[in-house]
Target: DNA-binding transcriptional MerR regulator
Amino acid sequence: MHTIGEVAELLHISAHTLRYYEKEQIVTPLRDASGDRRYNESHLKWLQFVIKLKETQMPIAIIKKYASLFQEGEHTAADRLKLLEEHKESIQKQMHILNTADEMLEHKISSYRALIGQ
Model:
């Protein structure tokens, strides 16, 4: 079991973010006898997944919806799959945009290097 500070350090996020995720019902840590938050390995894996979703620009509202569906149980698997497939499609579109921008920038950089003799 890990404290909120340990989890924040392990995952490179703030304790404030962890409390926010709890408030938004994205994660529900356990509580010890003193009422302090405790996170197990399952929490860590879930939070790593949530962090990846955030890093790939999934809106917090969709993450909350996914978390809610997950907590409802197996009968929501098709809905969760749909959310993830839609997000993957969004990522692929963004990757295409970024790759196109990267190619354009590479062309411009090459042009300037040729112009100044580098």
